[in-house]
């Protein structure tokens, strides 16, 4: 029986090739790009699920609140916390720390490499996290000092193999030799925390974990099964009361489920780029919208063509076909269309997968598409699209009365006009919403690139110097660079805008006396402010070696934060040490040290003649030539260090990579959604003008011109677009207003994106309608009227 329905469905598709092609193309496009978004969403939701104990694994984070200041959320804690939790709380199965070792230079023969994913950790790390070993014993790999565990990629890089490297030595540029005690699989990409090398905690000095004053450790706890995290979290306040004793500041430890970090974390100093649950919701909605629009297109075209199939239905009913058999017949047609579309989609997915990987930053393979989970989703899509798009046409067409049908009374109709107009309005609304969102996102990203940040990003090259004994040569390198005609200015510092910086608690002189405040800080030399195009608002810049280590420059925000009317000469002390103070010699105008998601915060700049970062302001005349001169000088002065550089604008804007990437995904998929809309609209308008061909011909014979004929069809679509705007505008405003709220600095939500989106949809629709209407109006009326 099914074979009969299949043959009839296939003949129906072949009979009307043009509309069948439009339906299949629409469904293929919708299914293909929906699957891409489904892959992206599944990957985003899978972060850290690879851990065997994922549901009981938490990161301890710190919340700090000072008077008249927003709550600060730090992803880090103090070094002694993990041992204290393991020792004093029976709910804790294991506690482990990760300490960032910074950019580390390792040697391989005569070549040196910078490694940025090197961490010091406790020996029990492999009891907490699930990292399969290729070689070595996870239980003992990090017990001894100067032990190191490598990932398979790093083992291959340094030894050319992943097996047989146990007991081998690897040396850093400072002469410290580490023994390889394990090789593990690479950390999965869907992890909130990625590393290449792990060094044993016992390598560090014995007293490194004594201080409760510094927040620079990532701390994780594995709770015993059955432990309620929110109950245990309340007990952590006892640790703060016992060891930390904060003044003028409220501290609290919170437990953050590891599986929620990637999509839900809003902590400062995250080890990796985090995602956004909001974008997951948005892209999931876009995927569903694509399928719905493809289904709407199918329904529109099928119901619009109902008059053509009326006699077929009438004859089938007279011949004994039941309503149920007709429903099955039409559903078979829609499911067959969906099956063809899915088969074409698989080919399109495989073809475009590399492009999507580049766009999304993911690494999907053809094998990913053949996973059981994806095949189940594809099967579900066939059923959903087949039944969703075919259900209404099936029930609508199957209820035709054969008496009226065979008298041709239905042939004068063009299907359920009200339903089609509702569906078209939905399509227009979706298109307008997506266009508005795309314009607003683009405008915000442009605003980020063009906003005055308080410093000059352009033509500034930043070079790291990550070797202790190399710092004494920094001054020689700067002096050599000053001789180059391509370099305008040279400086050194421990950080530049866009880099994470130290956050410490200081005792600050205020009108109310000395008060403890948390202040971000780093070290600069006397040329840093000039090189980065910053400006001194009060006092003076550093003057070189005449400045002592007790001189500091603060930003305007710190002046407001401390309530200083005359900031120059004010003092800042290290808590508990009244003899060691810093004196403010100047105030720099506010600049954005962090991305524009954050407000300008209080910053203190210490003086240091030579730091582990060098900045060079180029004149821009000959960039390749300037870089060649810099590299030649570098190799002469630092022969043991690799030459690596970044332009400051690229380095700073890398903070927005995630938003730019997601913005591109949304933009491209919005364009594809609108394309699917246009495919359906093209077919529907073509069919509508075809249905009204005789009316147009009669009007033409009676003397009507193009100016009278064209509005016959266009006015209905203009009305529907106006109705769509009433729906789309408030929806777009709601979502875009919330999205812009995630930025501390954002562009204004003006009326322009709304007008542009509405006008774009109107112009595309009118051009399509006018083309087909004019084509119908210019055709020979004899052809359409000769049967009358």
Structural class: alpha+beta
Count every helix, treating DSSP H or I runs of 4 or more residues as helices.
25
Distance between the termini: 42 Å
Overall average residue pLDDT: 84
Helix content, binned percent: 40-55%
Which stretches are low in confidence, meaning pLDDT under 50 for 5 or more residues running? 409-415
Q: What is the CA-based Rg, rounded?
A: 34 Å
Shape: elongated
Q: Which percent band covers the strand fraction? A: 15-25%
Number of beta-strand segments: 24
Largest sheet: 11 strands, mixed
Compose a concise summary of this entry.
The protein is of the alpha+beta class. It is built from 25 helices and 24 strands.
Summary tags:
788 residues, alpha+beta, eleven-stranded mixed β-sheet, six-stranded mixed barrel, 24 strands, 49% helix, elongated
């Amino acid at each position: 029986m099914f074979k009969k329905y299949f043959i009839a469905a296939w003949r129906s598709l072949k009979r009307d090739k043009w509309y069948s092609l439009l339906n299949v193309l629409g469904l293929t496009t919708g299914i293909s790009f929906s699957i891409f978004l489904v892959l992206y969403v599944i990957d985003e939701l899978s972060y850290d699920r690879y851990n065997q104990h994922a549901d009981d694994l938490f990161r301890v984070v710190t919340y700090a609140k000072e008077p008249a200041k927003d709550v600060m959320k730090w992803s880090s804690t103090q070094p002694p916390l993990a041992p204290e939790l393991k020792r004093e709380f029976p709910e804790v199965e294991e506690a482990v720390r990760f300490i960032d070792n910074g950019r580390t230079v390792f040697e391989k023969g005569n070549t040196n490499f910078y490694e940025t994913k090197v961490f010091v950790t406790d020996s029990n790390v492999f009891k907490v996290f699930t990292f399969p070993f290729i070689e070595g014993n996870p239980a003992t790999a990090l017990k001894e000092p100067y032990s190191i565990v490598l990932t398979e990629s790093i083992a291959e890089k340094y030894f050319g193999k992943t097996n047989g490297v146990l007991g081998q030595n690897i040396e850093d540029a400072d002469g410290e030799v580490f023994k390889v005690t394990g090789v593990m699989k690479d950390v999965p990409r869907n992890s909130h925390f990625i590393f290449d090398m792990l060094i044993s905690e016992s390598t560090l000095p014995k007293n490194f974990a004594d201080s409760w004053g510094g927040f620079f450790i990532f701390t994780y706890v594995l709770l015993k099964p059955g432990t309620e995290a929110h109950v245990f979290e309340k007990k952590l306040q006892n640790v703060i009361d016992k060891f930390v004793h904060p003044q003028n500041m409220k501290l609290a430890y919170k437990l953050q489920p590891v599986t929620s970090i990637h999509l839900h974390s809003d902590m400062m100093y995250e080890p990796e780029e985090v995602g956004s649950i909001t974008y997951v919701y948005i892209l999931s909605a876009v995927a569903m919208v694509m399928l719905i629009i493809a289904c709407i297109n199918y329904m529109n075209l099928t119901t619009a063509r109902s008059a053509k199939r009326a006699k077929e239905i009438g004859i089938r009913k007279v011949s004994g076909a039941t309503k149920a058999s007709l429903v099955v017949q039409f559903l078979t047609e829609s499911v067959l269309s969906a099956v063809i579309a899915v088969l074409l989609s698989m080919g399109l997915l495989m073809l475009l997968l590399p492009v999507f990987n580049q766009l999304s930053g993911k690494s999907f393979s053809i094998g990913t598409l053949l996973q059981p989970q994806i095949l189940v989703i594809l099967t579900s899509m066939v059923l959903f699209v087949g039944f969703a798009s075919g259900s209404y046409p099936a029930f609508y067409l199957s209820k035709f009365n054969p008496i009226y049908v065979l008298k041709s009374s239905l042939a004068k109709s063009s299907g359920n006009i009200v339903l089609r107009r509702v569906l078209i309005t939905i399509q227009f609304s979706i298109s307008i919403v997506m266009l508005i969102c795309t314009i607003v996102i683009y405008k915000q990203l442009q605003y980020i690139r063009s906003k005055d940040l308080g410093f000059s990003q352009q033509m500034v090259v930043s070079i790291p110097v990550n070797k202790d004994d190399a710092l004494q040569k920094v001054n020689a390198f700067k002096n050599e660079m000053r001789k180059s005609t391509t370099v305008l200015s040279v400086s050194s510092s421990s950080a530049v805008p866009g880099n994470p910086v130290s956050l410490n608690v200081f005792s600050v002189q205020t009108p109310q006396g000395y008060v403890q405040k948390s202040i971000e800080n780093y070290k600069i030399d006397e040329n840093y402010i000039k090189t980065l195009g910053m400006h001194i608002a009060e006092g003076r810049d550093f003057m070189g070696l005449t400045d002592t280590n007790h001189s500091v420059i603060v930003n305007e925000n710190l002046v407001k934060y401390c309530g200083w009317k005359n900031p120059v000469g004010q003092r800042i002390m290290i808590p508990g040490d009244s003899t060691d103070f810093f004196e403010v010699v100047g105030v720099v105008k506010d600049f954005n040290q962090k991305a524009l998601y954050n407000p300008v915060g209080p910053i203190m700049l210490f003086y240091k003649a030579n730091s582990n970062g060098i900045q060079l302001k180029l004149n821009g005349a000959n960039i390749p030539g300037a870089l060649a001169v810099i590299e030649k000088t570098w190799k002469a002065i630092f022969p043991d260090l690799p030459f690596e550089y970044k332009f400051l604008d690229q380095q700073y804007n890398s903070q927005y990579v995630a938003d730019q990437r997601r913005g591109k995904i949304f933009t491209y998929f919005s364009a594809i959604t609108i394309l699917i809309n246009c495919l359906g609209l093209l077919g529907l308008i073509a069919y509508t003008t075809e249905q009204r061909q005789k009316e147009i011909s009669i009007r033409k014979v009676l003397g009507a011109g193009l100016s009278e004929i064209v509005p016959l069809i266009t006015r209905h679509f203009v009305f529907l677009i106006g109705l769509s705007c009433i729906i789309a505008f408030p929806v777009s405003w709601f979502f875009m207003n919330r999205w812009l709220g995630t930025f501390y600095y954002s562009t204004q939500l003006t009326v322009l994106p709304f007008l542009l989106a509405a006008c774009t949809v109107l112009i595309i629709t009118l051009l399509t309608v006018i083309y087909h209407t004019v084509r119908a109006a210019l055709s020979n009326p004899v052809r359409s009227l000769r049967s009358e």
